[in-house]
Design goal:
The protein has three domains: about 1-150 and about 335-460, no CATH class; about 160-205, no CATH class; about 205-330, Jelly Rolls. Helices cover about 55% and strands about 15% of the residues. It has 18 helices and eleven strands. It has helices at about 1-15, 20-40, 45-80, 85-90, 95-130, 135-145, 160-175, 180, 190-205, 255-260, 335-360, 365-380, 380-390, 395-400, 405-410, 420-425, 430-435, 440-455; strands at about 150-155, 205, 210-215, 225-230, 235, 245-250, 270-275, 280-285, 295-300, 310, 325-330. α2 (about 20-40) packs parallel to α5, α3 (about 45-80) packs antiparallel against α5 (about 95-130) and α3 (about 45-80) runs antiparallel to α12. It is globular, with a radius of gyration of 27 Å.
């Protein structure tokens, strides 16, 4: 252990002497304070803080990721190229101790920088309202929607049954309207995929003068005297002139009313006018939830809107941005949530340090950096990459689906578990999400195992990289 720590300390000193490392550190030292004063968002105090935390944490994560890759690769390949590794390995230090020490040193540096810049971001987020002169209303909004950690509940997905899909396909085929929608030679699978998405959309559409009800069960709030929140986003068939819609909402236990009885819990009617294609929220007292955890949200599309309103679903219960309606309630604190977010960022850095260390054991500096960068950007946009496969020609798409797609799905998905998206909306980074994010540690262990295996059999004397 002493040998590993000695190599780690030497690696930190070596990294700090690198000009590239200093560039990344200086960039963070300069950009973060500038962002703290220049972030505007939507002009409100909450918007400014959300913008700063989002960009600040994302920038810190991105630059530290690049720093990790460059320093991890450079310190190992540089030692091999300059034959410095000989002087180290001739001492009573084994190869695995050398490589573990290198990786550990990079992580020491990452952790120190992440703590420093994380504390800076946290400080601005917490004390920002005082510096910005926030009034009582702005502070109340911050406490409800930003300085919190809210759990999310989504309505049950309205899926399309296979027999429904087949009936719609046969109807389209019988009416000979296929040519109006699809080019000649389009596969049946692609046609049915289009029909499936259209039918899913129709199930979540509300015509003018119509109503849609979402029911939630087993809702357990931490504070029955607190508030719960309804988060929504309108999609429309025809854009209104002022880009806004009227809406009428009812929240509470509606079951007794169906039987002509009086409800034991209050029913809250809400009238609103909101912009389309933007996430909005409204709060209601938590006593709207029945004793057994039931609550219903009813939405009426007033005839004055004169357009169909759609609530989009993408079927992801993990991603708040994939749903057009959600019920939110407090389940933790901002401080705990921020700490979990920092941990998620560190998990990423552990993965990248192991990846770069593995690549540097058998590749030259530029190739090892290139490989690490390709993997880094792939896992950062894995959702986009996987979705792009659906637009590839059918045969090639199937090949990608059973090869590259499986590899990408097996890798950590940085974009799926982005702590910034959780923090700015006050969404709880719960145990399930935290466990999935920590999957990167398992990958890091596998990569370090590969690195140790490769490095233990490497003929350093013949290495010319």
């Amino acid at each position: 252990m002493h040998s590993v720590l000695a190599v780690a300390i030497n690696t930190v000193k070596q990294a700090l002497r690198m000009k590239v490392a200093l560039v990344f550190i200086v960039l963070l030292l300069v950009i973060l304070p500038v962002m703290a004063f220049s972030a505007s968002g939507d002009g409100t105090v909450k918007g400014r803080l959300q913008t700063f935390v989002s960009y600040g944490l994302s920038l810190t994560s991105f630059l530290l990721s690049l720093l990790t890759i460059f320093t991890a690769v450079h310190t190992t390949t540089g030692d091999i190229k300059q034959r410095l590794v000989y002087t180290v390995l001739t001492k009573p230090i084994r190869r695995y101790q050398y490589l573990l020490g290198k990786c550990l040193g990079i992580l020491f540096l990452d952790l120190a920088l992440l703590v420093v810049f994380g504390v800076g971001i946290y400080g601005v987020a917490v004390y920002g309202p005082d510096l910005m002169g926030a009034d009582a209303m702005a502070r109340a909004e911050l406490n409800d929607q930003f300085y919190t950690a809210r759990a999310s509940l989504f309505p049950k997905t309205l899926d399309v049954a296979p027999d429904e899909l087949e009936a719609e396909y046969q109807k389209l085929k019988k009416n000979q309207t296929m040519d109006q929608y699809f080019a000649e030679g389009t596969s049946v699978a692609r046609i049915k995929d289009w029909l499936y998405k259209r039918m899913r959309l129709e199930k979540n559409a509300v015509a003018p003068g119509s109503e849609k009800i979402w029911e939630f069960r087993n809702v357990k709030v931490a504070d029955p005297n607190g508030m719960v929140f309804v988060r929504f986003k309108f999609e429309v068939a025809t854009t209104p002139e002022d880009d806004q819609l009227y809406s009428f909402w009812t929240v509470g236990d509606i079951r007794p009313y169906r039987e002509g009885k009086q409800s034991d819990t209050p029913i809250y009617p809400i009238e609103r006018k909101d912009p389309i294609r933007m996430y909005r929220e409204f709060a209601i007292p938590a006593d709207a939830i029945a004793a057994d955890g039931y609550v219903a949200i009813a939405f009426v599309n007033p005839p004055i809107n004169n357009t169909v309103v759609m609530f989009m679903e993408q079927g992801s219960d993990q991603n708040l941005e994939s749903q057009s309606l959600a019920l939110l309630f407090k389940a933790g604190t901002f401080h705990e949530n921020f700490l979990r977010g920092i941990c998620v960022v560190f998990f990423r850095l552990v993965f990248l340090a192991a990846l770069a260390s593995m690549a540097s054991t058998f590749l030259s500096f530029p190739v090892a950096v290139l490989l690490s960068m390709v993997v880094f950007f792939t896992v950062s946009i894995s959702g986009f990459v996987l979705e792009s496969f659906s637009y590839v020609e059918a045969t090639a798409g199937q090949i990608y689906k059973h090869t590259l797609a499986l590899v990408i799905k097996g890798l950590p998905q940085f974009d799926k578990y982005n702590p910034s998206a959780y923090l700015i909306d006050g969404k709880l980074i719960d145990a399930e999400m935290f466990v999935w994010a920590s999957w990167t540690i398992v990958w890091a262990a596998l990569l370090m195992g590969m690195a140790l295996l490769i490095f233990s059999t490497k003929e350093l004397a013949r290495d010319t990289s």
